């Protein structure tokens, strides 16, 4: 017994050592690729490359190897992921940058983060613009997109091409019908609906246990910013013809939006704890029939409906993307996430040693934008995860399986628009259509590609002042004077510097 | 050959004693190495508090900026807020939490029923093994306004629902309450251990003199564990500005930040999230220096009143 125990201990110790030796070792990137002769693209194609990828995970657990092996087959590569949970991306990416423990491909989505920006500007990553046109899918990236994704005129990676503006309002259609109300066109009508959903017992259970809005603790991806667009709030910054910059929170429409949220809060038309509600709880609560209005990404509608199966089986959803505060079609507006750039796939020089390696990896990025790999990363393996009809309309066979094995890949697709294959689900189709429509009304952030030293070093600290003040105003803890004095605090602590630096940067580009 | 009893001298550096107590010195080697490798060597990194550190330039290549980050830290309006919040929470921790495990340990010591005692001990140890994430989540389920159990009870009794999680005035209560719930049982262990080594003859003598239970606790048990209490108190004072990051980070939101933001959470957001490595190192260094000064002072004070102190 004791002898066996010793053996086992020895074995475990050894295997631990071996494992750590593997883990700690440097990936011998493209060792085979290096043995290939010259660096032309055509020859690189025949080499099976070993590629490491520091990537973001938006789901609870990483994908299994089932789909991955198919992707590897299609791209003729061996991929090794290091997954970083999206919730902790800032610190993980920053510590990776600081310690130099990077991969061949690094997914960077937080381009406004100071250390990421500094790393890019310092030339830690390859400048890829000279190489893009050698690869068909990368060559197709528009000049516009390349410009918006550039920092000081240089493109340090392949930009993620995402839909410009994905947000809108999702409402319980069955509740509207029950109360005999129409789909809203204006913010005032939306508030009426929220009120009715709270007070008129839309689920007919005789209890006052529903609210209108179900929101989460996020002023950007939650309800606030989207509602702000409907009131005409600029996207982070506004610039006038004279080149004067105004931050969104100093505009009248921002205050109107706060008043609107405040009215919902005071009337009880929104979940009273929205300031501390997590996204997952928000969606669960909605699926459980606790509320009837969800303001967020339009394609969440399908998830919400899936989650409600077996709990709220009569749930029907309607999506709205044309709400305004005035009722004029001309006033339609919706903020564009990050000007349609979802971030960069960047290639650190410390890992990707020379042009030849870089080209092989660009080839890989190019390949995952092909139709077949896009289908793998979006829907999974045909007849395992989905079936497809003659119109290229896809039906997912088993949502749970899809969520485990395929969904984790979906946030890594360098391009999410313009493919033939599509979801047969009517909600998904509708969401896609509305998101496409949104692009025509997208409001961009004019300061997105401008540089401000103060914003880079203290921007997020200062933003906290504004965020906190906004919440306090909405919850009725401070009045307008109190809010304004907080904004003054922002200006004094460095905000006015940010404004003048952005104005100078803007003038330099638009004299 | 029997080794003579080891006498701890202030400076036992003579080769002779090294030779004589080879094995004893060998035994402290792992601990010694641990401190050298994990505590002393990383201190070299504090240099970046005086630089504008850029990771890819390295310590050698980053520009020197002198006291720039220190000036920023002490002139930022947040500094006073951080100091105030940290000190208040620390004071609550000392005044409210610190005595509780001592009292509980004394009470447990009076329990004569073996089974009952160990059952109680096991039960109160359990929360220590739960992570803060779990504890804060449990609290959330209990305390939120939309259907939290606690608020449902308050409402059922005809009271007004209280937004425990979003009001600055409740944050400290919740914070200390959670610490008590999690760590109270676990903190009694060291005191219980100290109590077990009290000479039973002392109790017998006290009984002869007609002391009751309370008297015995007061005159025998407490003085016996006083050195342990003092030592733990001094060590705790060293962590004045060091309340721990995770717990508060989970509790903080936009509405209670003004009382909740402490140095630890600030270092995390300013440093790791925004990548200002130099600035957050500055904050960390300041914290460390304050902790060191306080430990030395507390130790001196302990010696003054005739206790042993930590060193």
Automatic annotation (TrEMBL), chain A:
Q: Which residues form the signal peptide?
A: 1-20
- PANTHER family from the UniProt entry: ARABINOSE-BINDING PROTEIN-RELATED, POLYGALACTURONAN_RHAMNOGALACTURONAN-BINDING PROTEIN YTCQ
A Pfam family matched by this chain, by name?
Answer: SBP_bac_1
Q: Write the record's keywords in alphabetical order, separated by commas.
A: Cell membrane, Lipoprotein, Membrane, Palmitate, Signal
Q: Which Gene3D superfamilies match?
A: Periplasmic binding protein-like II
- This protein's record includes keyword Lipoprotein: yes
What is this protein's record name? Sugar ABC transporter substrate-binding protein
Q: Which SUPFAM superfamilies match?
A: Periplasmic binding protein-like II (SSF53850)
Automatic annotation (TrEMBL), chain B:
Pfam families, A to Z: BPD_transp_1
Q: What is its membrane topology?
A: Multi-pass membrane protein
Biological process per Gene Ontology, one example term: transmembrane transport
Q: Where in the cell is it found?
A: Cell membrane; Membrane
The answer to whether UniProt assigns keyword Membrane to this entry is: yes
Q: Which residues cross the membrane?
A: 23-41, 87-108, 120-142, 184-203, 224-241, 277-298
What InterPro entries does its record include?
MetI-like (IPR000515), MetI-like_sf (IPR035906)
Keyword terms of this UniProt record:
Membrane, Transmembrane, Transmembrane helix, Transport
Ranges for domain ABC transmembrane type-1: 83-298
* Annotated Gene Ontology cellular component terms: plasma membrane
The answer to keyword Hydrolase applying to this record is no
Q: Which PANTHER family match?
A: POLYGALACTURONAN_RHAMNOGALACTURONAN TRANSPORT SYSTEM PERMEASE PROTEIN YTEP, PROTEIN LPLB
Q: What family is this?
A: Belongs to the binding-protein-dependent transport system permease family.
Report the protein name in the record. Protein lplB
Q: Which organism is it from?
A: Paenibacillus donghaensis
The taxonomic lineage of its organism, from the top, reads: Bacteria, Bacillati, Bacillota, Bacilli, Bacillales
């Amino acid at each position: 017994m004791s002898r066996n125990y010793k053996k086992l201990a020895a074995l475990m110790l050894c295997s631990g050592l071996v494992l750590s030796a593997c883990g700690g070792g440097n990936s011998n990137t493209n060792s085979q690729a290096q043995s290939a002769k010259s660096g032309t693209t055509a020859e690189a194609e025949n080499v099976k490359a070993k590629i490491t990828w520091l990537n973001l995970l938006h789901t609870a657990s990483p994908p299994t190897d089932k789909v991955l092996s198919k992707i590897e087959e299609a791209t003729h590569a061996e991929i090794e992921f290091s997954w970083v949970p999206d919730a902790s991306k800032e610190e993980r990416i920053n510590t990776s940058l600081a310690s130099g423990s990077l991969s061949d491909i690094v997914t960077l989505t937080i381009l406004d983060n100071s250390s990421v920006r500094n790393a890019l500007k310092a030339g830690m990553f390859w400048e890829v613009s000279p190489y893009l046109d050698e690869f068909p899918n990368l060559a197709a990236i528009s000049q516009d997109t390349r410009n918006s994704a550039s920092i000081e005129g240089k493109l340090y990676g392949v930009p993620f091409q995402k839909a410009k503006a994905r947000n809108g309002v999702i409402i319980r259609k069955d509740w509207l019908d029950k109360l005999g109300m129409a789909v809203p066109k204006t913010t005032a009508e939306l508030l009426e609906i929220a009120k009715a959903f709270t007070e008129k017992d839309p689920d007919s259970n005789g209890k006052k246990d529903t609210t209108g809005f179900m929101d989460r603790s996020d002023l950007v991806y939650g309800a606030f910013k989207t509602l702000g667009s409907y009131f005409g709030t600029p996207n982070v910054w506004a610039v006038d013809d004279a080149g004067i910059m105004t931050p969104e929170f100093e505009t009248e429409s921002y205050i109107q939006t706060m008043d609107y949220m405040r009215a919902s809060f005071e009337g009880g038309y929104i979940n009273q704890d929205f300031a501390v509600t997590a996204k997952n709880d928000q969606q669960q609560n909605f699926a459980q029939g606790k509320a009837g209005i969800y303001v967020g990404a339009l394609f969440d509608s399908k998830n919400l409906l899936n989650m409600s199966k077996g709990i709220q089986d009569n749930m029907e959803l309607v999506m709205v993307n044309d709400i305004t505060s005035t009722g004029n079609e001309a006033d339609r507006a919706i903020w564009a996430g990050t000007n349609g750039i979802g971030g960069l796939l960047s290639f650190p020089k410390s890992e990707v040693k020379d042009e030849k390696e870089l080209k092989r990896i660009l080839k890989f990025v190019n390949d995952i934008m092909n139709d077949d790999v896009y289908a793998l990363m979006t829907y999974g393996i045909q007849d395992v995860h989905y079936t497809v009809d003659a119109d290229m309309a896809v039906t997912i066979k088993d949502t749970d399986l899809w969520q485990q094995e395929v969904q984790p890949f979906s946030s890594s697709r360098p391009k999410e628009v313009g493919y033939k294959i599509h979801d047969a689900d009517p909600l998904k189709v509708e969401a896609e259509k509305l998101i496409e429509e949104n692009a025509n009304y997208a409001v961009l952030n004019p300061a997105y590609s401008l540089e401000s030293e103060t914003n880079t070093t203290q921007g997020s600290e200062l933003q906290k002042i504004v965020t906190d003040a906004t919440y306090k105003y909405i919850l009725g803890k401070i009045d307008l004077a109190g809010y304004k004095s907080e904004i003054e605090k922002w200006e004094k602590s460095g905000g006015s510097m940010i404004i003048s630096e952005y104005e100078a940067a803007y003038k330099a580009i638009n004299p | 050959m029997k080794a003579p009893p080891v006498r701890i001298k202030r400076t036992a550096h003579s080769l002779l004693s090294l030779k004589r107590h080879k094995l004893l010195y060998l035994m402290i080697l792992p601990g010694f190495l641990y401190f050298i490798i994990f505590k002393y060597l990383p201190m070299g990194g504090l240099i970046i508090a005086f630089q504008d550190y850029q990771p890819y330039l390295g310590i050698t290549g980053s520009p020197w900026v002198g006291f720039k980050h220190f000036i920023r830290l002490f002139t930022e309006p947040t500094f006073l807020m951080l100091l105030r919040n940290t000190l208040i929470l620390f004071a609550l921790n000392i005044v409210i939490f610190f005595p509780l495990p001592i009292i509980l340990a004394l009470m447990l010591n009076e329990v004569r029923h073996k089974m009952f005692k160990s059952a109680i001990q096991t039960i109160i140890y359990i929360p220590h093994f739960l992570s803060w994430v779990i504890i804060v989540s449990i609290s959330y389920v209990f305390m939120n306004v939309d259907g939290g159990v606690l608020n449902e009870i308050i409402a059922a009794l005809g009271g007004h629902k209280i937004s425990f999680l979003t009001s600055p005035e409740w944050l400290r209560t919740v914070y200390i309450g959670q610490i008590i719930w999690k760590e109270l049982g676990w903190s009694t262990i060291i005191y219980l251990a100290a109590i077990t080594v009290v000479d039973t003859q002392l109790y017998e003598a006290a009984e002869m003199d007609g002391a009751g239970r309370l008297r015995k606790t007061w005159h025998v048990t407490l003085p016996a564990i006083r050195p342990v209490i003092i030592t733990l108190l001094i060590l705790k004072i060293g962590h004045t500005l060091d309340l721990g990051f995770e717990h508060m980070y989970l509790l903080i939101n936009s509405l209670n930040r003004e009382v909740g933001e402490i140095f630890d959470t600030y270092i995390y957001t300013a440093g790791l999230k925004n990548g200002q490595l130099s600035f957050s190192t500055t904050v960390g260094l300041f914290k460390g220096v304050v902790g060191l000064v306080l430990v030395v002072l507390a130790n001196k004070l302990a010696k003054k009143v005739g206790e042993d102190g930590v060193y």
